[in-house]
Amino acid sequence: MTPTDPQPADRTPTSNPILKRALRWGALLAGVILVVGAVLGYVFAGTEGLVSAILGTVMAVVFMGITAASILVANRYANSDAFVGVFFGIVLGGWLVKFILFIVLVVVLRDAPWLNPTVLFLSIVAGVIASLLVDVLVVARARLPYASDVTLPPAPEDD
């Protein structure tokens, strides 16, 4: 009997379905926050409130989604020998994009007369809290073993 060559293990992280689920639920909840925030913003602050709620919710969703999306993109390189470097490079790049985008938005929107800062702030906070809540619930309900991506060696054969 000749031993067969072992097939290379699939090193795709098993966290991908969890991250995708978090993005889907986050997008759904962001849609609810967008509608509720836009209605309340319009009722309490007119058109400025409407625009502020929409912009604040979109900002929160984009900032929270960049991290999960960058991890999903980086996980595509899991079978590469340079996975660790590529992974951290992509995730760090996503964080840098968020930081630069945040600074640009703060400077551009600082004195915008067509925004209500209170509604903008409240919608950003609502989006961030909702995103964190979704992340916690999705991860807490996920059934992922502690050592899910480990490949064990084959059992020894008795002679």
Describe the protein's topology.
Elements: H1 16-74, H2 83-109, H3 117-141
Helix pairs in contact: 1-2, 1-3
Query: DSSP helix count?
Result: 3
Main pleated-sheet profile: none
Q: Report the end-to-end length measured between terminal Cα atoms.
A: 13 Å
How confident is the prediction overall: mean pLDDT? 85
Round the Cα radius of gyration to an integer and report it. Answer: 22 Å
Q: What is the string of SSEs from the N terminus onward?
A: HHH
Q: Helix- and strand-based class?
A: mainly alpha
Summarize the amount of helix as a percent range: 55-70%
Overall shape: it is: elongated
- Number of DSSP-assigned strands: 0
Low-confidence spans = none
β-strand amount: under 5%
Written account of the structure:
This protein is mostly helical. Helix content is 70%, strand content 0%. It contains 3 helices and no strands. It has helices at residues 16-74, 83-109, 117-141. It is elongated. The chain starts with 15 loop residues before the first helix and ends in an 18-residue tail after the last helix. 21% of the residues are buried. The mean pLDDT is 85.
